[in-house]
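Supplementary Methods. Inverse-folding protocol.

Structures were first reduced to a discrete structure-token string of length 449. This string, shown here, constituted the complete conditioning input.
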């Protein structure tokens, strides 16, 4: 129904005709329902009588700080793809999305909505407000599968199942990457609770290469000009810009500035470029999620300020053929949705998280479990009878107690692998083949302890 009223008529004939038409339509609908043999309305062909599975994916959209619209968009494309193939082990997949707004109250509301829609899991989502969203999920036994890794609770809650090493692995990895090329490092990071953890993590990686701790440069998360932060960052590495290096240091090493301001990182680098002296040897760096191929392209490619930059990520570079299955799903089922960038680590994390969900549901189906609930999903994840193969995008994943790494403050970590990348000729490429394991760096006590 459209909700609009038909104008009334003084003549009886149209009413009689309308009634007859409605009766005919009802008869046709009834016949169709009877012939469907119990199939669920809207279920994909071949899905049989299995109940739909509802999941939720949330992320901040249209905010003044970090935005991740590609994550819910990827979830919706995944649902279209998997439902075109008969669902998850025959269960139609229903994805409910929620705008987290980069706000603690909104994050809690998204979690409560997951409870209200009886979601069997929250999958591939982003929020830095773990304290707000994890409690409603824990009270109702809803697993949090494959969050982005920006809140402590994602690596502490027994109902959280992270697929990467989160912010901790990126920062420690970035420190190790920069230790081989930098005498001194300035870290420009958001002046937030989550940002407060970053200096110690980056410095732990630098210490692996016998480098001094990074200079901590705080900056507003939603700033529009970062000239002051850029000046402080340059001051922090100025003594190293001559490239003399400490005794036993890397020949030709120089100062480096790494920025982890999320979506505002490009604004910082614009301010930095304007202040950087001609001929400066100061190099720049970041982590995937704060910078990426889209930012490189937007700022001029090989002629832009990010040429030569060092970046640390969780996964293989976007051009790696291991991403081809995801790219095909995007091409075939996203219908040109420009929110989805295959090189975005949020999109990539969502793909991996849904890959895990699919494996878990199929495993339950093989065990004869037809009633898929949040509890049965949680139990399957905890048992980890079979590690989940993500096609080489991560190590095989499972979350038994013996799979947890001994990482201080992040006990749910099961994957501490990162990749080293660099911008060359305007393209993000692998700076080192394969993965780098930063578990040892994360397991050692840090200066903030």
């Amino acid at each position: 129904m459209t909700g609009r009223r038909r104008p009334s008529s003084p003549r009886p004939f149209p009413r009689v005709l309308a009634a007859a038409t409605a009766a005919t339509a009802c008869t046709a609908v009834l016949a169709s329902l009877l012939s469907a043999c119990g199939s669920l309305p809207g279920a994909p062909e071949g899905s049989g009588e299995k109940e739909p599975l509802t999941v939720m994916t949330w992320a901040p959209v249209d905010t003044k700080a970090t935005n991740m619209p590609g994550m819910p968009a990827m979830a919706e494309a995944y649902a279209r793809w998997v439902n075109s193939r008969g669902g998850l082990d025959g269960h139609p997949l229903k994805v409910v999305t929620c705008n987290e707004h980069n706000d603690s109250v909104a994050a809690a509301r998204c979690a409560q909505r997951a409870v209200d829609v009886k979601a069997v899991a929250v999958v591939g989502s982003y929020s830095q407000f773990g304290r707000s969203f994890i409690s409603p999920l824990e009270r109702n036994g809803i697993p949090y599968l494959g969050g982005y890794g920006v809140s402590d609770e994602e690596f502490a809650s027994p109902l959280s199942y992270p697929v990467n090493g989160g912010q901790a692995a990126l920062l420690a990895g970035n420190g190790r990457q920069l230790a081989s090329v930098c005498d001194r490092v300035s870290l420009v990071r958001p002046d937030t609770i989550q940002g407060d953890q970053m200096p110690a993590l980056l410095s732990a990686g630098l210490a692996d290469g016998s480098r001094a701790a990074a200079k901590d440069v705080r900056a507003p998360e939603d700033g529009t000009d970062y000239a002051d932060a850029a000046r402080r960052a340059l001051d922090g590495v100025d003594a190293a810009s001559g490239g003399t290096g400490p005794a036993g240091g890397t020949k030709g090493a120089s100062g480096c500035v790494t920025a982890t301001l999320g979506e505002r990182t490009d604004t910082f680098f614009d301010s930095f470029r304007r202040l950087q002296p001609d001929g400066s040897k100061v190099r720049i760096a970041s982590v995937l999620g704060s910078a990426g191929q889209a930012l490189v392209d937007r700022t001029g490619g090989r002629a832009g300020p990010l040429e030569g930059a060092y970046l640390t990520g969780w996964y293989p570079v976007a051009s790696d053929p291991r991403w081809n299955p995801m790219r095909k799903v995007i091409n075939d089922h996203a219908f040109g949705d420009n929110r989805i960038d295959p090189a975005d680590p949020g999109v990539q994390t969502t793909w991996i998280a849904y890959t895990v969900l699919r494996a878990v549901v199929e495993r339950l189906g093989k065990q004869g479990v037809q009633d898929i609930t949040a509890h049965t999903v949680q139990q399957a994840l905890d048992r980890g009878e079979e590690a989940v193969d993500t096609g080489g995008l991560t190590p095989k994943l499972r979350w038994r107690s013996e799979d947890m790494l001994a990482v201080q403050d992040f006990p749910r970590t099961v994957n501490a692998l990162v990749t080293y990348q660099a911008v060359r000729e305007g393209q993000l490429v692998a700076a080192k083949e394969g993965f780098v394991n930063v578990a040892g760096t994360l397991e050692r006590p840090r200066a903030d302890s």
